[in-house]
Request: fold
Amino acid sequence: SQQGEEDPQALSIQEGENATMNCSYKTSINNLQWYRQNSGRGLVHLILIRSNEREKHSGRLRVTLDTSKKSSSLLITASRAADTASYFCATDSGNNRLAFGKGNQVVVIP
Amino acid sequence: GAVVSQHPSWVICKSGTSVKIECRSLDFQATTMFWYRQFPKQSLMLMATSNEGSKATYEQGVEKDKFLINHASLTLSTLTVTSAHPEDSSFYICSARTLHEQFFGPGTRLTVL
Reply:
């Protein structure tokens, strides 16, 4: 069964705006990871946040983790057309496998 | 970063035939490899986990006799879809894991006519 589950949103935003997407999960985790997938392509690892971390930044990406609510958010600031993709969260519960959420489709309009 | 390749990137086959997909870790040795399946506009579903030299562990609902996995070395795993049917058409993604990180291949698009 899927561990991480994003709100089933399809975001359509203007270039330059911020995009926020959420992920919720059900059991305890070691870490949570966010991936990007362009249409018909493989996954690109974006960022990993450990269970003892609350916030992490990487370039224009900001990830938060709330283990009490079992949720995470991914914020992309100053979006670009090239950010158009599907974004997945995946949880690592220490059982040597990642469980993926449903994904968020983001479309950035130039 | 580490690179995982898949071959072929796409394949079209007739119903009833078998298709083999290769997954290679190009510049590292993977302790574990994973095979995922992804239907259009859906998430990745783990099919099986394989460790070099041992039998693969299949997820519930995945037929091991239909999806044959061979993990011959620390850099190569193969997935064979036997007697493929149109409902097996999907995007198959492999992943290779080191002690600390997991890397994904570019995927193989399988279309069964």
Notes: Chain A touches chain B through 18 residues (CB under 8 Å).
